[in-house]
Amino acid sequence: MSQDKFKNKTAIYPGSFDPITNGHVDIIKRGIRIFDEIVVLVAYNPQKSSLFTMEERCELIREIFADTKGVRVDAHAGLLVDYLKKNDINVMLRGMRAVSDFEYEFQMALMNRRQARDIETVFLMSGFRWFYTSSNLIKEVARFGGTVRGLVPENVYTRLMEKFGNLNDKTG
Prior knowledge:
Elements: E1 10-15, H1 22-31, E2 37-43, H2 54-64, E3 71-76, H3 80-86, E4 91-96, H4 99-115, E5 120-125, H5 135-143, H6 154-164
């Protein structure tokens, strides 16, 4: 492999992050040990209805990583390859939980490579504690008054409780 393949050792970690979970945080913390910089890219997905605005999601992530060197947050609506090209980044970091993620992630990686041949996708397996954690599941449990404390960072937990009016969470 060519020495300049990973130009500046920067990777983007794209996702809707609605909301960011401890599983996402785990991937970012492990990824920053591999890359000099990780851009957590809050991506607009028109197929998903969001609980938090893009601005709220960016703010929550910035709060979580305020003291972490090498992590920055950005937002993007459009093709990820366009963002990568515009910012001279050629590595995408993705987390993978169960085998069910593989097919979707594999398709996305191949489509991205079709759009731009120099894009590499690096997969990190989710930590075992977060294997069955998803943003959708967390929102559903919180919506019906269950606790998600310990599955999301504390600032996210607080905002979820505010959004769903669960300020008197029984298990908090």
